[in-house]
Amino acid sequence: MKNITIGVIGAGLIGRKHLAKLAGRGDYDLVGIADVNSDRIAADYPGTPVFADYRKLLDEARPEAVIIASPNQLHAEQGIACARRGIHILIEKPVTDTVETAASLIAEVRKAGIQSLVGHHRRHHQQVRTLKATLGDKRIGDVVGVSAIWATHKPAAYFEIAPWRSQAGGGPILINLIHEIDFLRFTVGEIVAVEAIASNRQRSFAVEDTAAALIEFDSGALGTFFISDSAVSPWTSEQGLGEAPEFPFSGESSYRFLGRTGSIEFPALVQWSQAGGAQDWNKPIQAQRIHASSVDPYVAQLDHFRDIIRGNARSLQPVEDGARSLIATLAVAEAAAGGRRVDLRHRYETLASPVVPATSDQQRAS
Fold first, then answer.
1. Are residues 156 and 50 in the same domain?
2. Considering the domain boundaries, does residue 26 fall inside one?
3. Are residues 50 and 133 located together in one domain of the fold?
4. Would 198 be classed as within a structural domain?
5. Is the Cβ–Cβ distance between 267 and 127 less than 8 Å?
6. Which residue in 196, 219, 258, 354 could disulfide with 335, CB within 3.0 to 4.6 Å?
7. Are residues 182 and 273 in the same domain?
8. CA separation (Å) from 155 to 22, 83, 170, 222, 231?
9. Beta bridge partners of 193
10. Residue 173 gets which letter from DSSP?
11. What span, in angstroms and rounded, lies between the C-alpha atoms of 48 and 93?
């Protein structure tokens, strides 16, 4: 079977990660890279066509598929341009920067009939899939609740390199929590409402440095989430899974999933239960480790993208699903700002509307 021709739009940190993974995959032929810093990128990737304008990549290299790893506010425009040319897309998270642009992208993807995959790579971890299967098999009974922490101390240089991170939209809710929201939706089920509070007391930036959220799932399960980028701890998914070199490995579990007959720590995958499935607080509770092999989630994601393009699998996360994770994350920020509960069900229903016109700017972009 012939290889899939593929292009990459955006050669920043995450784009380069995708390029490195593509270099080792025999199923793809890289036909071009698009980046506004074309001279620098061309020097770093000799022998690969580099375009300053992503439209030239699409029209001259004519890839079958594209990885979109550009800034969030460009995702919809570029995804729509791909859809109108019949090009399949793997689009980095968040799927777009706003719900409105996500709706326009969804409409164009549906109209074109192309395959789409949102790059929430954590869904491709074997530990995550094992957790999802364990919860689905009711090994701890019905999930009653989830308790989670994401806390690390971002250095001053993190904000000096990109000053926008100290402004609205640059805090841990929209940058980091979206990964965790998607993970919870994937493993526990749909989130239907959120409440939250936030604080900027530690850095006094215009954006939050710490937040706490209450989460209601469609199943009736409840969750609590504490997130901060100004607290030192070993409790982040990145540290627990060892998935990113900038986060030293801790192996510690930042999640507790609590069920009617037991509980599970994640990512260590330690299951706690009572002998014989007892539900009696006077009985001793024992621990059992659940084995899960480790895989490179970015490689597994590329393999899955190949399979959905070839018609051998259904997308683990099409753009419609990625938009739901965006809606839930934006709602946490909204709830924190307004001090109120935000119900998401109507927003999901509105997003599912089959007819959503593209904006004039997006029409010109194609």
1. no
2. yes
3. no
4. yes
5. yes
6. 196
7. yes
8. 31, 39, 14, 33, 11
9. 216, 343
10. I
11. 25
Same domain, 150 and 84: no
Q: Is residue 331 part of a domain?
A: no
Residue with tokens 């326009």, as numbered in its chain: 104
Buried b (16+ CB within 10 A) or exposed e, 318-337: bbbbbbbbbbbbbbbbebbe
Domain tally for the chain? 2
Judged on CB neighbours under 10 Å (0-12, 13-18, 19+), 48 is middle
Domain that holds residue 289: 126-294
Domain-located, residue 66? yes
pLDDT tens across the length of the chain (366 residues): 899 999 999 999 899 999 999 997 889 999 999 999 999 999 999 999 999 999 999 999 999 999 999 999 999 999 999 999 999 999 999 999 999 999 999 999 999 999 999 999 999 999 999 999 999 999 999 999 999 999 999 999 999 988 889 988 889 998 899 999 999 999 999 999 999 999 999 999 999 999 999 999 999 999 999 999 999 999 999 999 988 777 899 999 999 999 999 999 999 999 999 988 888 999 999 999 999 988 899 999 999 999 999 999 999 999 999 999 999 999 999 999 999 999 999 999 988 765 444 444 444 444
- Write the CATH number for 132: 3.30.360.10
Give the DSSP letter string of 239-303: HHHT--TTS-------EEEEESSEEEEETTTEEEEEGGG---TTS-EEEEEPP-----HHHHHHH
- Identify whether residues 27 and 175 lie together within a single domain: no
Cβ-based neighbours of 219, under 8 Å, separated by 6 or more: 142, 143, 188, 189
For residue 62, give the CATH number of its domain: 3.40.50.720
Between CA 159 and CA 137 the distance in angstroms is 43
Q: Please return the burial class of 211, using the count of CB atoms within 10 Å of its CB with bins 0-12, 13-18 and 19+.
A: buried
